[in-house]
Amino acid sequence: MRFVKGLDPGTKKVEEFYSNAYDVLGEDFRILFEELGIRSGMRRPAKLSLDESFRVFNRLNVSLDSIMHGTVDYHSLHSQFFGWDELPKKYTDRLAYSSRFTSIYMLNFISEKFGQRAAKVIMQHFQLKASHLDDATSSNNMILPLDICDYVYSYHGKETLEKMGESFLDVFALSEQGRLLKESCGLKLQLEKFIEEIAPVYVEKNYQWKIQSSTAGSVLISGIPKPEILHEFGTSAIVTDHAIYLRKGFLTALPKLYGSHRVSVEILKSLKDGDAADLYQLSYTPSPVPGRADLQ
Amino acid sequence: MRDLGLKHNKISELWKAGRLLGGKTQVELSRALHISQSSISKYETLGLEPSATDWYNFCQFVGIDAHKTLQLGYIDGKKKFKHRLFGDSNFRLPLRYKRDFSLKIRELIPFKECLVAELGLATWLEFLTESEVDKEMFLVYDYQVSLDLLNDLISWCDERDFSILERVQKYSGMFSSHGILHEEYARKKKPSELLMAMLEDQVYYHRVFRTEVTSDEKSLGASLQVTPEAQDFFDDSELSQFLHYKIMSFQQALRVNLNYTQDFEIEPGADPASIYVKVAV
């Protein structure tokens, strides 16, 4: 099956998708059409109704957007169709330094805030399966969390990314590292220790945080992706508009690890704007509030 | 088996809702997407189901998520059309309902479900026709309208001896009436967690009051303070009616979903525009 010349670009993309899917799945793809009750078969798949098309897309765990963008990983599509659940190669083939935990956390946040269906749409968009989220200790490269960031930014805005970053601290606070940090003394020292020693190892291994200056109530923090990451993936893939808001939210919540504080974080410089590094100004003052009681 | 679970008329409604939200006429859409106007008309009136390509190009053009919109059955994800949520669209909406933007459509969904379930779809459509409001607007949960639309709906029902404020509690207590937020609520296992989530989420529903949680060890309390903007537009009785409806809907959600049987303590706040709700431990 080959797509027809002379069609509009969108229809060509859809025809191309069906053609490629048929190439990797063979006769099983034809059988799938029958199983899904698509009577017209595969004669002109781009002419399938919307409902029929989505039945196919859902079964193959791809989204209409990824088809139109030409980002479908056909190796993954093949493996997932036959139950092997391989992650798309672009998330694993180079410098897989990121813990899967980060992506799991991000999808959990979306699921909590906007529902499981919203999280499932994102998973399908990036060809993720539930089994990919079983093991938080497995790894992938930085592209996966960045892709999720970009999607969340596009449809939910920067406020959601900032909230996602803030909420990450709640999860970190429960970890062994979070517990140990809370037990050490002095908020200023704790923040410095966290940003320069703990975050690069336990929070974001691909990104170098550095304290430029620190006084009581204010910390100036710079950040830049590690050189090997920029070299391997290229600046345009790594330096996006969006992850900076996730990091801003994360920094906003940071002083709250050590008690209640009024916090503000301002993005002073951004790699995306051509600056040499991201630069954040974190300001905080104590703000005691009573704890919350649980109802019966 | 239909994986999508959407009936054809839902796709038609979503298409029309997206077009009106995008501020486009059928002619403008026809020119931009290179689809005949008669096809677009048929997409919107059940005669024809769009292809995946037409749907994708359409969603890109009006700024909605092609995949998620079909999966959810309503339009969510406001970033790309945020500027259109305040009346800058082609939805039919009288000026009276644009004088303030106090409510999101999400707030009205339980009322719609109540009316449809108890008096029938025709009654709901009759109200919309009389009010000169497009039914497709109710597929855009973040779209913003005046509190007057709700007040008028309540009055319209009262005139027909149907006390919707009493009947709607059942529907506002059901998470399914809250769109995309319902799964968040369904996960809450403690009354305090659910109440907190609902209080925090009020920004997704309206701009009539702000909430501030004032807890102590024995109770969870919330101060509900009417915003100055709402006070400018509405009189005390209208605001009080809305505040009490909301408090009852919180109570109902806790009752229905977590078997929390105690009544909330409701006290007047420090000034007439506030109210204090206390929930015992």
TL;DR?
The complex is a heterodimer of chains A (296) and B (281). Chain A has 296 residues and is an alpha+beta fold.
Question: Could you give the topology of this structure?
Answer:
The complex is a heterodimer of chains A (296) and B (281).
Chain A: H1 9-25, H2 27-35, H3 50-60, H4 64-69, H5 74-81, E1 98-99, H6 100-114, H7 116-125, E2 139-140, H8 143-156, H9 158-173, H10 176-183, H11 187-203, E3 207-215, E4 218-225, H12 227-233, H13 235-238, H14 243-253, E5 261-269, E6 278-286
Antiparallel strand pairs in A: 1-2, 3-4, 4-6, 5-6
Chain B: H1 8-21, H2 26-33, H3 37-44, H4 52-62, H5 66-72, E1 103-104, H6 105-119, H7 121-131, E2 144-145, H8 147-159, H9 164-167, H10 169-172, H11 182-186, H12 191-200, E3 209-213, E4 219-226, H13 228-233, H14 236-258, E5 265-268, E6 274-280
Antiparallel strand pairs in B: 1-2, 3-4, 4-6, 5-6
Helix pairs in contact in B: 1-4, 6-7, 12-14
Helical content of chain A stands at 40-55%
Structural class of chain B: alpha+beta
What is the averaged pLDDT score of chain B? 85
The topology string of helices and strands of chain A comes to: HHHHHEHHEHHHHEEHHHEE
Unreliable stretches of chain A: 1-5, 289-296
**How many individual helices of chain A?**
14
Would you tell me the overall average pLDDT of chain A? 81
Strand arrangement within the widest β-sheet of chain B reads: 3-4-6-5
Bin the strand percentage of chain B: 5-15%
Largest interface: A-B, 48 and 52 residues
Determine the N-to-C terminus distance of chain A. 63 Å
Strand arrangement in the largest pleated sheet of chain A: 3-4-6-5
- In one word, what is the shape of chain B? elongated
Radius of gyration of chain B: 20 Å
Beta-strand content of chain A = 5-15%
**What is the assembly state of the chains in this entry?**
heterodimer
> How much helical structure, as a percent, in the residues of chain B?
40-55%
